[in-house]
Amino acid sequence: MVSPTVNVARYSALFAGVFYGFYHRRTLQAAHNENKVQHAAHDREHLIAEAKEAWQRKQVIASSSDDVVTDPEDPRFDLEKLIAKWEKAT
């Protein structure tokens, strides 16, 4: 039979270990959550920068294309302007 002092020491060590594990997991989870937030913010910034670059490229292409609409489904489509542009290119 084990003495009561040894049992108290065992259970004290067990509860201290459980408490430490709980505390350590909370600190690790908090660090992980903060990392996720920073990563999400970085991803949003990257997507915004990518969208701005795409918009700028679109604006440059639109301004250099002499406002000729090449889509026949577009209501602003003008066949004469398109043919004139093709003749200029060749």
Automatic annotation (TrEMBL):
<comment type="subunit">
    <text>F-type ATPases have 2 components, CF(1) - the catalytic core - and CF(0) - the membrane proton channel. CF(1) and CF(0) have multiple subunits.</text>
</comment>
<dbReference type="GO" id="GO:0005743">
    <property type="term" value="C:mitochondrial inner membrane"/>
</dbReference>
<comment type="function">
    <text>Subunit e, of the mitochondrial membrane ATP synthase complex (F(1)F(0) ATP synthase or Complex V) that produces ATP from ADP in the presence of a proton gradient across the membrane which is generated by electron transport complexes of the respiratory chain. ATP synthase complex consist of a soluble F(1) head domain - the catalytic core - and a membrane F(1) domain - the membrane proton channel. These two domains are linked by a central stalk rotating inside the F(1) region and a stationary peripheral stalk.</text>
</comment>
<keyword id="KW-0007">Acetylation</keyword>
<dbReference type="GO" id="GO:0045259">
    <property type="term" value="C:proton-transporting ATP synthase complex"/>
</dbReference>
<comment type="subunit">
    <text>Component of the ATP synthase complex composed at least of ATP5F1A/subunit alpha, ATP5F1B/subunit beta, ATP5MC1/subunit c (homooctomer), MT-ATP6/subunit a, MT-ATP8/subunit 8, ATP5ME/subunit e, ATP5MF/subunit f, ATP5MG/subunit g, ATP5MK/subunit k, ATP5MJ/subunit j, ATP5F1C/subunit gamma, ATP5F1D/subunit delta, ATP5F1E/subunit epsilon, ATP5PF/subunit F6, ATP5PB/subunit b, ATP5PD/subunit d, ATP5PO/subunit OSCP.</text>
</comment>
<keyword id="KW-0472">Membrane</keyword>
<keyword id="KW-0813">Transport</keyword>
<keyword id="KW-0496">Mitochondrion</keyword>
<protein>
    <recommendedName>
        <fullName>ATP synthase F(0) complex subunit e, mitochondrial</fullName>
    </recommendedName>
</protein>
<dbReference type="GO" id="GO:0015078">
    <property type="term" value="F:proton transmembrane transporter activity"/>
</dbReference>
<dbReference type="GO" id="GO:0015986">
    <property type="term" value="P:proton motive force-driven ATP synthesis"/>
</dbReference>
<keyword id="KW-0999">Mitochondrion inner membrane</keyword>
<keyword id="KW-0138">CF(0)</keyword>
<keyword id="KW-0406">Ion transport</keyword>
<dbReference type="Pfam" id="PF05680">
    <property type="entry name" value="ATP-synt_E"/>
</dbReference>
<comment type="similarity">
    <text>Belongs to the ATPase e subunit family.</text>
</comment>
<keyword id="KW-0375">Hydrogen ion transport</keyword>
<dbReference type="InterPro" id="IPR008386">
    <property type="entry name" value="ATP_synth_F0_esu_mt"/>
</dbReference>
<keyword id="KW-0066">ATP synthesis</keyword>
